[in-house]
């Protein structure tokens, strides 16, 4: 149409209908590359329209949910490119459909590829390092604080604090996690997916 939407966009936008899985199967059989075409208006993949429709389905609409699930399976079997738009569309799926998507071999392979890239791997290792550091220094600070309070009860003239050098890793860890969360918030907001945070 004039917005650059393909027939697959319309079929997945109506994924809850009984005929939709058959239509999606036919369209993907004719041209599997259509899964990667975005519309001109918002640069949405067909998967975005499936997510929009699926988010309106209630728990009681079992047949409609089954049709949407079949459409998702067919879409993912066509092996879409692992672009940022694709990953954002996956995140915008409702939980019941996202749970189905992440167990498919296509999404597993994409996530394995993305997570094994240098930056995400570094980020995971960095998180582990900071978590361990914070736990260790937290335990040390708590023990020192308890010891100092017990000493203060014995001798009220002594009032020492936990040394700042023991608190610095805790503050750095808190700042690191806060910055990371802010980056995630801004990233999701720029993609229009803030509600998934």
Automatic annotation (TrEMBL):
<keyword id="KW-1133">Transmembrane helix</keyword>
<protein>
    <submittedName>
        <fullName>Uncharacterized protein</fullName>
    </submittedName>
</protein>
<keyword id="KW-0472">Membrane</keyword>
<feature type="transmembrane region" description="Helical">
    <location>
        <begin position="128"/>
        <end position="146"/>
    </location>
</feature>
<dbReference type="Pfam" id="PF00023">
    <property type="entry name" value="Ank"/>
</dbReference>
<feature type="repeat" description="ANK">
    <location>
        <begin position="3"/>
        <end position="39"/>
    </location>
</feature>
<feature type="transmembrane region" description="Helical">
    <location>
        <begin position="166"/>
        <end position="188"/>
    </location>
</feature>
<dbReference type="InterPro" id="IPR002110">
    <property type="entry name" value="Ankyrin_rpt"/>
</dbReference>
<keyword id="KW-0812">Transmembrane</keyword>
<keyword id="KW-0040">ANK repeat</keyword>
<dbReference type="InterPro" id="IPR036770">
    <property type="entry name" value="Ankyrin_rpt-contain_sf"/>
</dbReference>
């Amino acid at each position: 149409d004039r917005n650059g939407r393909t027939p697959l966009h319309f079929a997945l936008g109506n994924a809850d209908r009984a005929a939709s899985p058959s239509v999606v199967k036919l369209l993907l059989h004719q041209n599997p590359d259509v899964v990667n075409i975005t519309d001109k208006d918002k640069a949405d993949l067909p998967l975005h329209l499936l997510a929009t429709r699926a988010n309106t389905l209630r728990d009681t609409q079992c047949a409609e949910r089954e049709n949407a699930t079949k459409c998702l399976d067919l879409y993912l079997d066509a092996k879409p490119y692992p672009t940022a738009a694709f990953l954002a569309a996956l995140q915008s799926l409702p939980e019941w459909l996202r749970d189905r998507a992440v167990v498919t071999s296509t999404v597993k392979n994409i996530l394995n590829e993305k997570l094994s890239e240098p930056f995400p791997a570094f980020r995971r290792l960095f998180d582990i390092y900071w978590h361990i550091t914070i736990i260790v220094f937290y335990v040390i600070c708590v023990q020192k604080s308890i010891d100092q309070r017990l000493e203060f009860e014995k001798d009220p003239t002594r009032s020492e604090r936990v040394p700042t050098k023991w608190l610095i890793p805790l503050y750095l860890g808190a700042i690191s996690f806060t910055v990371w969360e802010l980056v995630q918030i801004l990233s999701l907001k720029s993609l229009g997916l803030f509600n998934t945070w």
